From TrEMBL:
Residues 1-19 form the signal peptide. InterPro entries: ABC_choline_sub-bd (IPR017783), ABC_Gly_betaine_transp_sub-bd (IPR007210). One of its GO terms (cellular component) is ATP-binding cassette (ABC) transporter complex. Residues 27-277 form the ABC-type glycine betaine transport system substrate-binding domain. The gene is choX. Pfam families: OpuAC (PF04069). This is Choline ABC transporter substrate-binding protein. GO terms for biological process: choline transport. GO terms for molecular function: choline binding; transmembrane transporter activity. It comes from Rhizobium lusitanum. Keywords: Signal.
Length: 309
């Protein structure tokens, strides 16, 4: 009887190990605010989780609603904490411990003035160089949607830059990039709001200007993006936590993935699948030590589910 009882206990332990994570972890609730970079990376996360046997879904929500929902445990995972852009949003949730940061998933992001490389080679390498070529620029800076160009407006007001009388042309992201396209075709001068990750970095040959630390921060308005979760989630769902700790990106990869959405018109899930299939070696890092929901080896399962075997 004692041997039989031991065998039963061993079988039960094996069954528990194979069962993987608790049933409460199967549904993974995610969200993003409608930014193309976060739509793409969230698409990657959902594609991997679903291939592992989870039921991952994302909602399109405002940043403030995302944080409230994480605090109230109505969301589990957010892949898009931009620092410093979201510091003020995150501050109260950081202080009360209701939202936890897992890790940085992207380094090298930036946001500042940009020019075509031929303009940079002509001598416009710093904010302080702009006024020297005022006539070539038609005394204009090109921005995006009204309300999103305050830093450009602040630069114009700074007497040290000599931009008095310059105008910020506000339209939209697409309108701005259409103007960049037109100007680069005839090699005329333009200075515009640039950022990375974004397909503009691969579509156009551009350079970012130094000298904007006062407005955009150091290192070309450098930023990082981090993964965040609701309090306690990493302990409750350790296998998803392992994936989240592995899941990192780079600017070039996101540039290409965003182009699938913005230029090719793919849905985020389709863009994610295309990007994964284009560079399947990334799966080795992302899925190291990760299992399926029911406890099987994760890498083999994902490759099989995505047609990579």
């Amino acid at each position: 009887m004692r041997a039989g009882a031991t065998a039963i206990l061993l079988l039960a332990a094996t069954a528990r190990a194979f069962a993987g994570e608790p049933e409460s972890c199967k549904a993974v609730r995610m969200a993003e605010p409608g930014w193309n970079d976060l739509a793409f990376t969230t698409g990657i996360g959902i594609t991997l989780l679903n291939a592992l046997g989870y039921e991952a879904k994302s909602q399109l929500l405002g940043i403030d609603v995302i944080y409230t929902s994480l605090k109230n445990k109505n969301l589990d995972v957010f892949l898009g904490y931009w620092d410093p852009a979201m510091v003020a949003y995150y501050k109260p949730y950081k202080e009360d411990g209701s939202v936890e940061t897992v890790r940085t998933n992207l380094e090298g992001a930036k946001y500042t003035f940009a020019v075509p490389t031929y303009v940079w080679e002509a001598g416009v390498k710093d904010f302080s160089d702009l006024h020297k070529f005022a006539d070539k620029f038609d005394h204009k800076l090109y921005g995006i949607e009204p309300g999103s160009n305050q830093l450009m407006l602040d630069a114009i007001k700074d007497p040290a830059l000599g931009l008095d009388g310059w105008e910020v042309i506000e339209s939209s992201e697409q309108g701005m990039l259409s103007e960049v396209s037109r100007r680069t075709r005839d090699k005329s001068f333009i200075v515009f709001q640039g950022w990375a990750p974004h397909p503009m970095n691969t579509v156009f040959d551009i350079k970012y200007l130094t000298g904007g630390d006062k407005f955009y921060g150091p290192n070309f308005g450098a930023a990082t993006v981090s993964t965040q979760v609701r309090k306690g989630y990493l302990q409750e769902c350790a296998n998803v936590a392992k994936l989240l700790n592995n899941l990192t990106f780079d600017v070039d990869y996101e540039n290409r993935g965003m182009a699938y959405i913005m230029d090719d018109g793919l849905e985020p899930a389709d863009a994610a699948l295309k990007a994964i299939k284009a560079e399947p070696a990334r799966l080795d890092t992302w899925l190291a030590g990760v299992s399926t929901y029911d406890g099987r080896p994760g890498l083999a399962a994902v490759k099989s589910a995505l047609g990579l075997q």
